[in-house]
Design brief:
alpha+beta; 9 helices; single chain; about 425 residues
């Protein structure tokens, strides 16, 4: 008889078999004569109202984040580029009280700085931080360029006047220009300013200044003074000179290594005598595809306790850090398993229909060791739903079929401590190798 204890025992074994590991112009820069071609690279990201989180799906943030990676790769490829200084700025729109806007502008600046410094190694001494609070000058530029704003001249006059500090309805300090703007046309002008311009003031940006090394040409050596000519002698026959050999071309510098794939195994399942092997591929700057297979062909200590399980669990992951290397991630997985299990007097087998389910997972990955190590460790946990159908047989050779049972399971569907090895991909080197072959 398939008791409640046996059900949970089989279920725990099945679940264990399919669990998977789961980024200025304000700084005066003086350059020596050995540098030339001053270059400024500016990138800006936008924020939602009262938010300090950089959302890649908001406005043009996705394009800005891609430009950060392009800039990083450009600086890595060209060794003649040198970073001189970098300024991080943050601003807020003027709706709220002064203290709130100061906090938002500072936090947005810090969020962008932390993101950029994940990609570009910048010494602390080169960084200038500037949380503008409210960029009134930027708002004046936007309004001067727009001839359609209602009461435009009155608005510009208020913005260019210094008013004493005011208080809001709760007694909190407020910039004196805000109450004056709210009075215009019973608040209609303020609402138009909000809808047209304020969304462009909730941002953070950075300006990175680079220079390019100037390699001076060597000065020609002075020619020696001519010596007096000796009396002519018979000229000997010239000896044959070897043909000049062409100078070897300089070897191209390889591009930075990029992670292509991880090969991994789940230590939790190995400890439970479940053989497993997994692979994970990078699909985009934020997405990866992970799949792992499990096989258990063993008898568990007794002749009447046999566990035969084959399972596979593909998963799509979204990374908040560096895919395949380091950081947090979330995933959507689909476990599929076939089994033939004997526990004492009864045997339980899938009826030519695999166990299947769906679940969500969370995990964190980190390298094992310092430097450019390819070894890593990954911790993953997931929960979800599984639909289980099984046939019950007598626990003897060719035992008699007894019945078919079904179960809808909600609970853990993934658990892993994975040891992984990373394989990197260098597009340029691969192309040269193909041509050489």
């Amino acid at each position: 008889m398939f008791t409640k204890n046996n059900i949970w025992y089989v279920l725990s074994l099945l679940i264990a078999a399919i669990l998977l590991p789961a980024v200025s112009m304000a700084q005066d820069v003086r350059l020596s004569e050995s540098w030339q071609n001053d270059n400024r690279h500016g990138i800006s990201v936008d924020f939602r109202v009262n938010s300090t989180v950089i959302d890649p799906n908001y406005r043009n943030n996705a394009t800005a984040l891609e430009r950060i990676e392009e800039l990083y790769e450009k600086l890595e490829r060209d060794t003649l580029y040198e970073i001189v200084s970098i300024e991080f700025c943050g601003t807020a729109s003027p709706e709220g009280p002064s203290a709130t806007n100061r906090r938002l502008s500072h936090a947005r600046m810090v969020a962008l700085e932390n993101l950029v410094r994940k990609h570009i190694d910048i010494p602390d001494g080169m960084i200038v931080e500037n949380d503008h609070y409210i960029a009134w000058d930027h708002l004046i530029e936007l309004i001067e360029a727009d001839k359609t704003l209602n009461m435009r001249e009155q608005v510009l006059e208020i913005l260019k006047t210094n008013y004493p500090e005011a208080k809001d309805a709760n007694g909190r300090p407020l910039d004196g220009r805000i109450p004056e703007l709210r009075k215009l046309n019973n608040g209609q002008v303020w609402r138009e300013l909000n809808s047209k311009y304020f969304v462009q003031m909730r941002n953070a940006w950075f300006v990175l200044v680079t220079v390019r090394k100037h390699v001076p040409e060597p000065e020609p050596e002075p020619e020696p003074e001519p010596e007096p000519l000796p009396e002519p002698e018979p000229e000997p026959e010239p000896e044959p000179q070897p043909e000049p050999q062409p100078e070897p071309e300089p070897e191209p510098q390889p591009e930075p290594k990029r992670p292509l794939m991880n090969i991994k195994t789940n230590a939790v399942e190995v400890a439970g005598l479940i053989t497993n092997l997994g692979f994970e591929w990078k699909l985009s700057p934020r997405l990866s595809f992970d799949v792992i297979g499990h096989y258990s062909p063993y008898d568990y200590f007794r002749y009447d306790r046999k566990i035969r399980v084959f399972a596979i669990q593909p998963e799509v992951r979204y990374w908040f850090g560096e895919p395949l290397i380091k950081g947090h991630f979330v995933g959507l997985h689909v476990p599929v398993s076939g089994f033939n299990v004997q526990l004492g007097d009864h045997r339980y087998q899938d009826p030519n229909r695999a166990v299947w389910g769906v679940g969500l997972s969370y995990g964190y990955a980190m390298p094992l060791g310092k430097g450019d190590t390819k070894w890593g460790i990954e911790f993953t946990v997931g929960v979800g739903y599984m639909n289980i159908v099984y046939d019950v047989y007598e626990g003897v050779f060719n035992g008699k079929y007894l019945r078919t049972e079904k179960m809808n399971y909600w609970g853990p569907t993934r658990l892993g401590v994975d040891i992984s090895y990373r394989i990197d991909y260098n597009k340029k080197n691969k192309k040269e190798k193909t041509l050489g072959e």
